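Contributing: when you submit paired examples, paste them exactly as shown. First protein:
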Amino acid sequence: MTLLLGILIGLLTFVALRIALHRLLLVKLRRDVAALNAGDHRPLLAGYAQDAVLVFTEGDHRWSGTYVGRDAIGEFLEGFMRVGIKGEITELWTGGWPWSMTILVGFDDHADGPGGERLYENHTVLLCRTRWGKIVRQEDFYVDTVRMIGFDRKLTELGM
């Protein structure tokens, strides 16, 4: 009976710690995205490994491509801030061990024009692989890449 109780307590502790890790990660990421929305990409960038790789949706737009290293990813994030893209995390899924975790993030983003009109909005799923709490690879999958191309053209028309 004591062995069974010990196993049950161990399992409950594991589940509780897993839930706590998930919630802490969600709070941290939402805080980092709020900082990004306010014009500071540094908290979010600190979550990437020095040699991280970010693969952004391919297409005929200015953000298309693969960004290698924290500096390149920082420039990528600054580019988003420059054109006023803002976003929010809508969902978060995690799997794996804390030292080698896979994270899926549901992310809605949008941008408004100088007059307040909505120029762009989209939904994305970010697939992140981590190593000891740092993102080492991220791939972004947009629901509608045509919206991104249209937004890029609007920005060009506005001289941005």
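Second protein:
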Amino acid sequence: MTDLATAGTYTLGDRTVKRMGYGAMQLAGPGVFGPPKDPEAARAVLREAVASGVDHIDTSDFYGPHVTNQLIREALSPYPDHLTIVSKVGARRGADASWNPAFTPAELTSAVHDNLRNLGRDVIDVVNLRVMGDIHQPSEGSIAEGFSTLAELQRQGLIRHLGLSNATSAQVAEARRIAPVVCVQNFYNLAHRADDALVDELVAAGIAYVPFFPLGGFSPLQSSVLSEVAADLGATPLQTALAWLLHRAPNILLIPGTGSVGHLRENLAAAELELPAGVLARLDSVGRGEG
């Protein structure tokens, strides 16, 4: 079994978690909508993740909607004390599986209560405000009203810690003037490096950075280089991309998702994958657009 502690730990507020976690999004049906074809297989993945040492699970009640949180409750409740569950609010699903903003105080409050009910918890460890100005990438705009709503729910004892998703540096700064921010969850990987400066900024501030889509946005050439490096290492491209993220900065927490126990084990094995200096240099060239 992979020793996830090899990759180290980082803090989420008063919680300390291993840097290799698990993202539950893929446990829902196609398009992250509706139930999975085999709910028991989905529950088995969750149990295997925790049995393998995962202590950080990322989810949201708009996955499904409601599906992944209900699966987490069914598979893992009563929850181990060391397990940190991070959810997000700010969106809702349409009947056509569309992703729509749900950013008013009433919508955010309702979403937090939905998460609590479907997870079967009295308090959520971390809630990220998912900024929906541009659904596909961060875009500027004030988030003060929405983040203040979550800060009030935190004061009521329903949320332990707050974070942001799909956010800019300016929005992080704005949120921090309202309440402490423990993590930022954005699209970032070996090829998609727009957040390089933000990653470094958050390292200095002691805030966790949680990248998603570790293989998203690669050009054919970049994918080819990654595959060649992975083959030389005797690893998969995804394992190699995950290992690069772990090397990128000490505050990066990973949440690779899968609906397969076999793929889960492969992903977790990236925690032990060593990248020699020459390999790191070659991988870094992918992000710089070099050959």
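If you have annotations for the second protein, write them as plain sentences, like these:
The longest helix spans residues 105-119.
The radius of gyration is 18 Å.
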